[in-house]
Design goal:
Elements lengths: L4 H4 L4 H14 L7 E5 L5 H9 L3 E6 L2 H10 L6 E4 L13 E7 L9 H10 E12 L5 H7 L2 H4 L6 H8 L1 H10 L1 H8 L3 E7 L4 E7 L1
Parallel strand pairs: 1-2, 1-4, 2-3, 4-5
Antiparallel strand pairs: 5-7, 6-7
Helix pairs in contact: 2-3
C-alpha cells in the first residue's frame, strides 16, 4: 500500500517551508541544547534539526508506524524516538529539555490543555514551547511560487493542496479561538504569535 498524501507531504519542498519558522526559532538555542518534538510523525523536523542544528533531539509519537518511518530517515542513531500512549503523562522528567515543539498537533485535539501542561512540565525554567499549526486560510499557490525554481514543479508538492483541504476546518477553529493566548495569560506566561507560510500557518510560543 502506498503512502497517504499527508505522509508524502513530509518529503515535499513546501513542507520544509512550513517547518522553516520552527527551525529559525530553534536556531536561537546554543549548541548542544536538548529538544523534544512531541507528535514527531515521520520525523522530518528531527531530520532537519539533525542536518542543520547542533542539538540533542528526542521525538515522541503515539503511532509506532510513524516512529519506524522516522528512524528510517534519521542517520544519527543518537536521536531518541519514544512511543507513548494517547493522553498519557509524557515519559520524561520534569525540566528535562531546553525546548519542546508541537507541529500540527494541538489543533487535532479536543482538549489541548493536558498536553500543553505536560510540554511545559518537561522544559526547563526560562525555556519555551514552540507550536506550529495550520490556519485553514491562505493560498497554496503563494507558497509554491515562493519555492526555489527547481522545487516548484515537483509532483510531491501537490500534497500541499490535500493538506490545505484536510486541515481547513480544524485549523480555522484553532486560529479563531486563540486558545493559547488565553492559556498563557491565565498562567502569567509569555506568549508570542505570528502568521507564517503566506498565511497558511501560525507559529505560537509560550515561555516559562
Amino acid at each position: 500500500m502506498g503512502l497517504s498524501p499527508l505522509v508524502q507531504a513530509h518529503s515535499a519542498p513546501w513542507f520544509d517551508a512550513f517547518l522553516a519558522p520552527v527551525l529559525e526559532r530553534l536556531g536561537r538555542y546554543p549548541r548542544g541544547a536538548n529538544l523534544v518534538d512531541i507528535g514527531t510523525g515521520p520525523g522530518r523536523l528531527l531530520e532537519l534539526v539533525q542536518d542543520r542544528l547542533e542539538m540533542s533531539a528526542t521525538g515522541l509519537d503515539v503511532d509506532p508506524t510513524m516512529l519506524e518511518r522516522a528512524r528510517e530517515r534519521l542517520s544519527d542513531s543518537r536521536t531518541r524516538l519514544v512511543l507513548t500512549e494517547p493522553g498519557s503523562r509524557l515519559p520524561f522528567r520534569d525540566d528535562e529539555f531546553d525546548v519542546a515543539c508541537l507541529c500540527s498537533v494541538l489543533f487535532l485535539l479536543d482538549d489541548s490543555g493536558p498536553l500543553v501542561d505536560e510540554a511545559l512540565r518537561v522544559v526547563r525554567p526560562g525555556s519555551e514551547v514552540v507550536m506550529l499549526t495550520p490556519t485553514g486560510r491562505g493560498d497554496p499557490a503563494d507558497v509554491l511560487a515562493s519555492l526555489v525554481q527547481g522545487d516548484r514543479g515537483r509532483l510531491v508538492n501537490s500534497t500541499l493542496f490535500v493538506w490545505r483541504k484536510e486541515t481547513e476546518r480544524r485549523g480555522r477553529e484553532w486560529t479563531n479561538e486563540r486558545w493559547l493566548a488565553s492559556y498563557a495569560a491565565d498562567r502569567s506566561l509569555t506568549y508570542e504569535r505570528s502568521t507564517v507560510l503566506h498565511g497558511l500557518a501560525v507559529l505560537e510560543t509560550i515561555g516559562t
